[in-house]
Amino acid sequence: MKKEVKIGSKVETMEIIERIVVDEILFNLTSPEIIETAYTACIPGQKPGFAVINLQTGNLEGRTIDDNDYFLPLEGSVITIYRIGKNLDSSLWPLDVLTESELEEFKAEEEKLDDFINGKGINKMDRTVDFLLNYYEKDLYDIYGQIEFWYGK
């Protein structure tokens, strides 16, 4: 499907996937897949990570933007599904990512959380994704608002 998009002062025509395909993609994505995609795109302490559907390819992709940008560029023609802030790592508590036994050991060793995790060979991404799943909820209102922007009502 062709879509005309105004970028700055010029109008560009781009080919994007059909609306029904977007709905199928959203239906088939799993919460862990979405969160992992945003997490791997995040640059801790520097840039947030986003999980997006690329409307030109139909792929789930991770994207990031600079602090002074408010939106992902339109030329990316994407629907943003999930965002992880750049300061997520610094806001995690040991209780968020450690088991009870690991937590007891962590308290006894008095290390920094990252040093403890790395020293024990714990997969921080897996633990963080598991933690975020407790709070994850697709913001369908926002997703469908973006779909309406690209495809109309």
Largest sheet: 3 strands, antiparallel
Number of E-type strands: 5
Order of helices and strands: EEHHEEEHHHHHH
**Which structural class matches the secondary elements?**
alpha+beta
Strand order of the largest sheet: 4-3-5
Q: Looking at the structure, what is the overall shape?
A: elongated
Q: Output the radius of gyration.
A: 19 Å
Helix content: 40-55%
Number of helices: 8
Features:
single chain; 153 residues; alpha+beta; three-stranded antiparallel β-sheet; two-stranded antiparallel ribbon; 8 helices; 20% strand; elongated
Can you walk through the features of this model?
With 153 residues, this protein is α+β, with helices and mostly antiparallel strands. It has a domain of 100 residues. Helices cover 45% and strands 20% of the residues. The chain has eight helices and five strands. Strand 3 and strand 4 form a beta hairpin. The mean pLDDT is 86.
Summarize the structure.
The chain is an alpha+beta fold. It is built from 8 helices and 5 strands, in the order ββααβββαααααα. The protein has a 3-stranded antiparallel β-sheet with strand order 4-3-5.
SSE map:
Blueprint: E1 2-7, E2 10-15, H1 19-28, H2 31-41, E3 49-54, E4 60-64, E5 78-84, H3 88-91, H4 94-97, H5 100-109, H6 113-120, H7 124-133, H8 140-151
Antiparallel strand pairs: 1-2, 3-4, 3-5
Helix pairs in contact: 2-7
